[in-house]
Design brief:
Number of helices: 16
Helix content: over 70%
Number of strands: 2
Radius of gyration: 21 Å
Distance between the termini: 23 Å
Strand content: under 5%
Largest sheet: 2 strands, antiparallel
Structural class: mainly alpha
Low-confidence stretches: 1-6
Mean pLDDT: 93
Shape: globular
Strand order of the largest sheet: 1-2
Order of helices and strands: HHHHEEHHHHHHHHHHHH
């Protein structure tokens, strides 16, 4: 499919240009004890999804994605700052197969380098003219605080047995989806979109981010371990209150609900039977099907906004193909 190939080529160009702008800019800065950990985590790579969204948003409205490179760096540095501190909170030894910063150095170094990353992210936005800079700072600050709120809710939910689905949706919206939405909107603002167009693109990103996170819950239980990229059943092993779990708790089948609660009250040495049985409960209570329906609902909500964005038909097709490709991770 030539069109799909062209789309993939453009995304590849975004990523290459972005990494040329980002990587190694902190490697030689002093003191090394502060900046080496920052360079280390930024070198870690990944899909660079969020900065690519900033560049896409700018390209849609101005035809010039490079003007948005500094904002893209702000988003990526901030995202990695959150990962660095999340790893400390979770006592995680590895991130993408490499030692986490607090393991490679120490916790104090990781905290301080993370603090510096937040400041460095804001400094990236100083490049833009005053009026635009104010709009970007307001959006970025609002989003950064929401991400922190989402993380705190996630922590609190681990200790609660009465978490509701609306609460869970608010948590994943703040912890995950708002940064996706922010990335799109920052790019649109830099590209010269109207306030209404920028907000519509924000809404697109918000719905897509929610769909993506619910899909992540689903694939953790029912994904193909060869394509999912992480251990299937990890959330079940860790007794996480995912969308599947919360839907099951609402089931009228009290016997299965009670069994689920028993499985989630401990961590057996061999989790194989637990994973298999919990997956069966998710299916028997219809939670698996309802979760797939929720993924489809939020994806559809995102796609509905595309024709209202005031972008060319070609760019509409790019955005539509991007969204569908993102949501076609294999179960």
């Amino acid at each position: 499919m030539p069109y799909f190939s062209e789309k993939r080529y453009m995304l590849s160009e975004y990523k290459i240009s972005f990494e040329e702008a980002l990587l190694n800019q902190y490697a030689a800065r002093e003191p090394k004890g502060l900046y080496e950990p920052i360079d280390y985590i930024l070198q870690d790579g990944g899909k660079r999804l969020r900065p690519i969204l900033v560049l896409m948003g700018s390209q849609f409205y101005s035809g010039d994605y490079k003007r948005a490179l500094s904002a893209a760096k702000a988003v990526e540095i901030f995202h990695n700052f959150t990962l660095l501190h999340d790893d400390i909170m979770d006592a995680a030894p590895l991130r993408r197969g490499r030692q986490t910063v607090h393991e490679k150095w120490d916790t104090n170094t990781a905290i301080l380098s993370g603090d510096a990353m937040l400041i460095l992210a804001y400094q990236q936005l100083e490049e833009y003219e005053a009026q635009l800079q104010v709009a970007l700072f307001r959006l970025f600050s609002k989003t950064a605080l929401e991400v922190c709120e989402g993380q705190q809710w996630d922590v609190e939910f681990e200790l609660r047995s009465d978490v509701t689905i609306p609460e869970y949706l608010q948590m994943i919206t703040y912890k995950t989806a708002v940064l996706v939405a922010c990335a799109f909107k920052m790019g649109a603002l830099i590209g010269g979109a109207s306030a209404e167009q920028a907000q519509l693109l924000y809404d697109f990103g918000l719905n897509l981010g929610i769909a993506f996170q619910i899909q992540d819950d689903y694939l953790d239980a029912f994904g193909n371990p060869e394509t999912f990229g992480k251990q299937v059943g990890g959330d079940i092993i860790e007794n996480k209150k995912t969308y599947l779990y919360l839907l099951t708790k609402q089931s009228d089948n009290k016997t299965l609900v009670e069994e689920l609660e028993q499985w989630f009250s401990g961590q057996p040495q061999d989790p194989t039977k637990k994973i298999a049985r919990v997956k069966h409960i998710f299916q028997e209570t219809n939670a698996a099907t309802l979760t797939q329906q929720a993924i489809e609902k939020y994806t559809t909500n995102a796609l509905k906004t595309i024709e209202q964005l005031g972008i060319s038909e070609d760019n509409q097709n790019v955005l539509r193909a991007f969204a569908l490709n993102l949501m076609q991770r294999q179960a």
